[in-house]
Every structure is written in C-alpha cells, then in structure tokens.
What does this fold into?
Amino acid sequence: MNCVNITGYLTKELSLKILENGTKVLNIRLANNQSKKNTSGEYEVCFFNMVAYNQIAENMCQHLKKGDRIGVTGKLISEQYRDKENRECEITKITIQHVDYLM
It folds into this structure.
C-alpha cells in the first residue's frame, strides 16, 4: 500500500505548466506544522514536495493561492535525475490524487 494523507499550507503562488504532449503539471511545496516544539519553544515545520496533473492541477490553480490550507491524499514517488554537474540525484515527492480545500 502506498497512501499519504497530509494537511498543510501552500508555500508559494501556483504556476501551471503544460507539457508538449498537453499534460498539465503543477509542482507545489506544502508546509506542515508538527505537533512538537523545538528547543526555542516554536513548532517545527516540515516541507513536502508534491505534483498534481491535468484536471486536479487546473482546479488547484483556479481556486488556491499562497498560504491556503489544503488536505492532500496521494502516493509517494521517487525520481532520479542528473544535476548540472552531472551528479546523480534523487527526489521524493507526493503525487496528488485528491485535494480538500480547508481555507
């Protein structure tokens, strides 16, 4: 089973990209406040990279903005790529399958 459920706040304005084949892609970063405090007495924050495609991506761009709170259901994926110095890199992100607007 590969299922992720998380709530958080959008960290930047949304920008929809359309690939040559017509696929609509939206990459976002979600800030999630943790329940424990750090040594300074502030709540820790985790950031999660996410991607949405086609209709979900389009709907998110139409209805959401930076700072909005959302709930996401998706699956965890890992992608490999080479950076500018030709080093092999890996990134883990969540592919969004469902979004709840919690504004």
Summary: The chain has one helix and six strands. The mean pLDDT is 95. The helical segments are 54-63.
